Amino acid sequence: MIVVMKADLPAQSPELARLIALAESFPGVSTSVHRIEGRTRSLTEVYLLGPTHALPSRPFEEFECVEKVVRITQKYKFIGRHEALDAVGFEHNGVSISQDSFHLFPGVCAVDTRENLDSMFRSIAAAGIVTTRAGAYKPRTSPYDFQGHGGGCLPWVFELAGKHGIRIISMEVTHESHIDEILSALREAGNPTAVMIQIGTRNAQNFELLKAVGQQTEMPVLFKRGMGITLEESLNACEYIASGGNRRIVFCLRGVKSHLGEPHRNFVDFAQVSVIRRQTRLPVCIDPSHSVGRRNAAPDGLMDIFHVTAQGVIAGANMVLVDFHPHPETALCDGPQALKLEELPGFIEDTSICRAAYLERTKRAALRAARV
Amino acid sequence: MIVVMKADLPAQSPELARLIALAESFPGVSTSVHRIEGRTRSLTEVYLLGPTHALPSRPFEEFECVEKVVRITQKYKFIGRHEALDAVGFEHNGVSISQDSFHLFPGVCAVDTRENLDSMFRSIAAAGIVTTRAGAYKPRTSPYDFQGHGGGCLPWVFELAGKHGIRIISMEVTHESHIDEILSALREAGNPTAVMIQIGTRNAQNFELLKAVGQQTEMPVLFKRGMGITLEESLNACEYIASGGNRRIVFCLRGVKSHLGEPHRNFVDFAQVSVIRRQTRLPVCIDPSHSVGRRNAAPDGLMDIFHVTAQGVIAGANMVLVDFHPHPETALCDGPQALKLEELPGFIEDTSICRAAYLERTKRAALRAARV
Amino acid sequence: MIVVMKADLPAQSPELARLIALAESFPGVSTSVHRIEGRTRSLTEVYLLGPTHALPSRPFEEFECVEKVVRITQKYKFIGRHEALDAVGFEHNGVSISQDSFHLFPGVCAVDTRENLDSMFRSIAAAGIVTTRAGAYKPRTSPYDFQGHGGGCLPWVFELAGKHGIRIISMEVTHESHIDEILSALREAGNPTAVMIQIGTRNAQNFELLKAVGQQTEMPVLFKRGMGITLEESLNACEYIASGGNRRIVFCLRGVKSHLGEPHRNFVDFAQVSVIRRQTRLPVCIDPSHSVGRRNAAPDGLMDIFHVTAQGVIAGANMVLVDFHPHPETALCDGPQALKLEELPGFIEDTSICRAAYLERTKRAALRAARV
Amino acid sequence: MIVVMKADLPAQSPELARLIALAESFPGVSTSVHRIEGRTRSLTEVYLLGPTHALPSRPFEEFECVEKVVRITQKYKFIGRHEALDAVGFEHNGVSISQDSFHLFPGVCAVDTRENLDSMFRSIAAAGIVTTRAGAYKPRTSPYDFQGHGGGCLPWVFELAGKHGIRIISMEVTHESHIDEILSALREAGNPTAVMIQIGTRNAQNFELLKAVGQQTEMPVLFKRGMGITLEESLNACEYIASGGNRRIVFCLRGVKSHLGEPHRNFVDFAQVSVIRRQTRLPVCIDPSHSVGRRNAAPDGLMDIFHVTAQGVIAGANMVLVDFHPHPETALCDGPQALKLEELPGFIEDTSICRAAYLERTKRAALRAARV
């Protein structure tokens, strides 16, 4: 059972303390207070754990400070909407991410040279973007492929990010030790930027790693859907993270493996954007680069990567992780799918049209609903 | 080899006759003239068949009336773009359908009662739409399910269509005899409307039926992708139709079977809209109803059916086949996925926003390309 | 409800007539008598159709001639086992096919020359085999591939079959007209052999063709599983055939399309042999050639085609459809998967070991069950 | 390039030293000696690493002690057969495992109580089997499912194993720390048994864990194929392990996720047994329990679990991992697929028939090959 408190309740509210005391007076029931600091307001939720199925909701609803009491019926205990909860999202290093926000994360799939990264960040910054992706630890299908520069590049990656005003870097980790490596490197660099930890598709069911990123709360987690598993299994994997304590999770669709999606690298699964928004409180990211995997364009002059991005955005996606590279032909990883820096303004223009159209769609839907 | 003539060349052009004579003077080479009557202009293409790989293109290019000579290198001989051909489309009963047009085909999955169909057509007409879907022959997974009213309902279906000014009905056939049944019924009713023949996903590789619909040219063909086969195999199936003589084909995406697409009925494959537009000359249709299969809505108030439609349209889809029903709860087929008549204006409003956004996207892309 | 009569009940039994009269005395109930002529005994089943859920079984069980009364609870009305029925099979041109029998059907995928077919049949006959496959009508993914010789080759195909004592040829049809073509050609040739009609994987949901082969009873039907559909959907397709009147159906597994089965041409699905035997009364065939698609051998000296055949047989498969060709390198269709004529004795030897092992497995299982 | 030495070459052979010196005299070439101790003989291979493509093979072939020189052309550098290498396998705690051996590993999916494990081991031992499975660390799709007893149960698990003479326990690890936990527990218990580390399907591309198990050589590794990835990707994952130094790897097929395999829990992929044996040097294991997932039996009295086991064994599988449980109805994990202890003798009898048939098949194949 979740008791949602009214907005902006002080953390030290005596009424809150009384409510917790009441809850814990029921045999076997414990509580866990979850506070979400959003950009414009804060939200407090009290989770009642244990044998709560027989608990009355009335005594809790009667508290002045309570907005609503929600019974948890679905399987996604911590990430689920339970048909009543809002998807409030979170704020990280000044950037607000929720089911209502929209951010582009253009960047390099794998960090290679300082010069390339500098060019990349400069282009992003010039376009007014403060969020990016940059991989230091790369899981590769073959042990003989480039595996990323590892922790060694972190100092200059963070330094460059700070120089260009980048506020969040989405960065994949493949081992729990990377969490501390990243946090240490950030600290040593004077926290010039912040990191969102990325769980790649190959580790989508690496439960030990999920627990590790769930037990730290310094960094939010971008979880990429598993390649050959159902959406439900992937959402259960997010539940692992959330149940560890970290609920600042973004769910990223990136296509799945199937011959039915050819000639694309993966079968683009962005039709599930609205499903995740309905079933969970998680903001939804799309990764058009790994989905499509190549730069072919339609006769209308727009590359497939632009088209599938448009498809995610028009359905309400909140984040776009997209591969760029100053020199795709020399990229050490996934060059064939990288956009060129000079294509960034066009990409932004294109996604802006789609985001505006999405907002218009929801505005009109609200008007229609109001008329009924 | 295809010789594309300049627009609006008269069918009886003596220059055309000379070109054909020249072509046929090469040993083993025969010709086939293909004339496409578009809304605003007509186009003539001369196919040179036989051992044309050694043919020089120069003598043909020198004709005054020739726009270009295209060597066929890809596998999709008749439907392919061969990287040089335009996707001119076709006109049927006054409605123009091409890779540049956009039409909604709302309608009933299966015709049931006269009253329901009358309501359906009235709503469509009221919205200014002249294209619909209405199934008389229904292939069903189990022999014990409702199989459609068959040819018996055609007289009143066509009569009602005429009454409401419907110009095209997309109608599935499952047997070659249905072609004549439909043509006869149209004739007997005084051709109050026209039909686009639909090949369902279960018959996507029923080559005998494909040949049959390809050998008639009175009606264009809407081909629905096969459920468990690759896009390439489905395009090869369209090539069967086209090689029979009928090149007025629309390719319809409708989702494919995979557990990875759950909770949707099928795995939505609309990311391939731009692929088909690139590889072939075929207009692309999407069927959001059979893809999604249910009426769930996202928290933004828009049903998944609206969202996936938006995804197809924002990427350039030219047609939308969508299930409506006056009383979905009593529909004899696929009721759970049908929209209600009162939802039609909202659906039109929503798709209009997306179509406008798509056109804006292509306009901006053209401007960007011009700047380079 | 199905009333199973005791074995060898005469068709004109007065008791049977009384039972039918009793059944039809219930309001809305009609009957359909189904007689199965097996090699050693005949079986009569009376299907009670209509509102039978409220029918008492007692009055029917009391008839002397009744073995048992089975309530139909599953979806596979005509092909299902309903947890009580035996899988009696059928006899065709002196060959008995059931869930207890075992036959090899080696042959050519597509008939090409008279010489090749003569060699093929001679080899089979020399090995003591009287059942084969030979395709005259070939459905091909591309319209530009060899489509088979069609009806024109039937006279000499049947003549050669007769010459070599072939009793059954499994032959794919892709159009209902082929049924009559085959029957006429057989008749004109003096019925020197018999045909089992084959429905290919691409027509697995061509319901009109299924109805057509179901409405004739001269020839049994070999149904090949659809490539991208579930087993349940394929079994429903067989139910179409059976509900038309023809219950002499063999279900053939031939692999399904999936990248997960690479490097084999299709994902071998022979683990479902026992599922079909449990759920239905149909004998089960396997097609190792189309499943595997190539001639690679394991280090143990046995080709993958031999190994997957062994896998089907060890689990109880009743038929093996396998491609051979006198000159695979010149075959017009599927040459890369064809075995050579000189490999036939080895193939027979190998499958015999497996069949013997399967029989031994069931014998031991019965002994173990008896001990409990 | 791999130089395979003649069998039983002493590790200190001066000729070997000269060969290594010769190899390292080529610029940039280094060597790595790999010694395989088999049950009856030992084998030495010298890997020449670096720019070996231009190296002559002749000077190496001329050494008296050299059996053959193999150029590595395929991608599976360390696990590949390269069309010339034997699959020699390895020995662990007195048990020899190779592409020629055959072992049953019946056991519990997850360790629950001491009593149950004692019963389990007693039954196995009574049947003369010394190899088993027993899971202490269980990765589960939902965080709210039983996750295994973890390291705490290892002391009594190993003690019981020793008591019953169990020589190898296959045990899944989900975190690198489990390796040391297991080794310590074994040591503390006085090494009464040995462990084969199991990598589960969900960690099939957890490359950090693969590296960790590859860098230790005390325990061999049983690698379970990834659920939604191709066979090639799974074999690349094994290459990760092997490239770390540990080449004592067994590849385990356990079915893959696909709706096409229904009603089985997973789509059984045992047709790939012969593929793995051809492409790699790895012994092949099958896991019928996780593939099938339920206890349904065919009308021949044999459960599907028996049938798919038979299918793996008849094609040459070298190991069978199979779930048993003294009380399946109370098992904390995967109870529905567990066989009962009293079914063990039948299972052994059934697989013995299949193994004998497999050996007979290969014997006959060798005779046929000798005749040609």
SSE diagram, text form:
The structure is a homotetramer of 372-residue chains.
Chain A: E1 2-5, H1 14-24, E2 30-37, E3 42-49, H2 58-61, E4 66-70, E5 90-92, E6 95-97, E7 103-108, H3 114-126, E8 131-134, H4 154-163, E9 168-172, H5 177-188, E10 194-199, H6 207-215, E11 221-224, H7 231-243, E12 249-253, H8 273-279, E13 284-286, H9 288-292, H10 304-314, E14 319-325, E15 339-340, H11 344-371
Parallel strand pairs in A: 7-8, 7-14, 8-9, 9-10, 10-11, 11-12, 12-13, 13-14, 14-15
Antiparallel strand pairs in A: 1-3, 1-4, 2-3, 5-6
Summary?
The structure is a homotetramer of 372-residue chains. Chain A has 372 residues and is an alpha/beta fold.
How would you explain this protein's 3D organization?
Four copies of one chain form a homotetramer. In chain A, strand 12 (249-253), helix 8 (273-279) and strand 13 form a beta-alpha-beta unit. Chain A has helices at residues 14-24, 58-61, 114-126, 154-163, 177-188, 207-215, 231-243, 273-279, 288-292, 304-314, 344-371; strands at 2-5, 30-37, 42-49, 66-70, 90-92, 95-97, 103-108, 131-134, 168-172, 194-199, 221-224, 249-253, 284-286, 319-325, 339-340. With 372 residues, the first copy, chain A, is of the alpha/beta class. An eight-stranded parallel β-barrel of chain A has the order 7-8-9-10-11-12-13-14, surrounded by seven helices. In chain A, strands 2-3-1-4 form a four-stranded antiparallel sheet. The first copy, chain A, has a two-stranded antiparallel sheet with strand order 5-6. The longest helix of chain A has 28 residues, at 344-371. Chain A is built from eleven helices and 15 strands. In chain A, helix 3 runs parallel beside helix 4 (154-163). Chains in contact: A-B, A-C, A-D, B-C, B-D, C-D.
